[in-house]
Design goal:
With about 325 residues, the chain is of the alpha+beta class. It has two domains: about 190 residues, Sandwich (Jelly Rolls); about 110 residues, Homeodomain-like (Arc Repressor Mutant, subunit A). Helix content is about 45%, strand content about 20%. It is built from twelve helices and eleven strands. A seven-stranded mixed β-sheet has the order 8-9-1-10-3-6-11. A four-stranded antiparallel β-sheet has the order 2-7-4-5, with no helix packed on it. A hairpin with a 2-residue loop joins strand 8 and strand 9.
């Protein structure tokens, strides 16, 4: 007997996520860190353990102040700059190897910054799905007032950050694996925290945070093979079709049917990796009675046919072996 899963558990089970912590920054002002656009599927993250920073993402919004306890994830892999805000020429940083991670330091004598930096890596085509349905940057502030509606998640996130701080401080056996596993958990908790926020950002997180829209989101993730109609989805949300469509467009920028198809294609991509599973079986498992219709939809979304996708994944697996 399988348990009933919530939409976020379905999402995290559907996408292939791997976290990795790469750097601990220990800087005195003036300092600056510059990140170019990330490779496809890579989402940089930063955790401010102590001190403060200013985040700039050219073309992606206004500069944002970060303080101790803040987490920022660049979900679209956008180029960004972190600095102390003084405007002074930054002191050059040097890197040294510690067991399980790299330490970056400078000789600045101003206010100190302690920051963990890493990235979340998503395998294709899930990286495209995440970028399409999450805002360009997520900022989670764990210094939020205790007793808020997401207080339990806040406590969990603080506990996770404390574990990451402790592991990055000590040269412990298995530390590298532990830091990467905690980075993966950080992604899940950050999404949970954002979806529970009273000010949930755009995309799936905004839908999840809207009590009247959440049932449609749950229905699509729980039963993606079901031929959901706009009428059925609007009915379970207790609103008209026009209202449901308007809310989806405002918060996600896509229609419920577009979300449904995207979920189906992400699931299909996973199934096609499995040896011995026919294209016909995959098509049926994600709600297509016609293999031709499934092939058209898959090719439209991924730019290659199901057979080409399967071959490319087999080649990757052989390349790793």
């Amino acid at each position: 007997m399988s348990p009933t899963l919530d939409w976020l558990s379905h999402l995290l089970g559907m996408v292939t996520v791997r976290g990795q912590l790469e750097l601990r920054c220990s800087y005195g002002a003036p300092w600056q860190v510059i990140y170019e656009d990330s490779d496809a599927g890579e989402m940089p993250y930063h955790i401010v353990l102590g001190g403060s920073a200013i985040l700039e993402t050219p073309g992606k919004g206004k500069p944002q102040n970060l303080g101790a306890g803040d987490i920022v994830m660049l979900t679209h892999g956008s180029a960004h700059i972190l600095h102390d805000g003084s405007g002074a020429r930054p002191k050059p940083a040097r890197e040294r190897e510690a067991l399980n991670l790299i330490i970056s330091e400078n000789k600045g004598s101003g206010e100190r910054l302690d920051m963990l930096c890493g990235r979340i890596v998503l395998a294709p085509p899930h990286d495209r799905f995440i970028r399409a349905y999450l805002p360009p940057r997520l900022v989670i502030r764990t210094s939020a007032v205790e007793g808020s509606s997401n207080g339990e998640t806040l406590a969990q996130l603080k506990g996770l950050m404390a574990l990451m701080r402790a592991e990055s401080n000590a040269d412990r056996l298995g530390g590298h694996a532990m830091l990467n596993a905690l980075s993966t958990a950080l992604f899940a908790l950050a999404l949970r925290m954002s979806s529970e926020s009273d000010e949930a950002p755009t995309g799936l997180l905004a839908l999840a945070g809207h009590p009247r829209l959440a049932p449609a989101l749950a229905a699509i993730f729980n039963q993606p093979a079901y031929p959901w109609t706009l009428s059925e989805l609007s009915s379970i949300c207790s609103m008209s079709r026009a209202t449901l469509l308007r809310h989806f467009k405002e918060k996600v920028g896509r229609s419920p049917n577009e979300l449904l198809v995207d979920v189906r294609m992400a699931l299909a991509a996973n199934e096609l990796k499995k040896p011995g599973v026919s294209t016909e079986a995959v098509a049926e498992s994600v709600g297509y009675q016609s293999v031709a219709a499934f092939r058209r939809a898959f090719t439209l979304h991924l730019g290659i046919t199901p057979a080409e996708w399967r071959r490319s994944e087999v080649e990757k697996q052989h390349g790793r072996s």
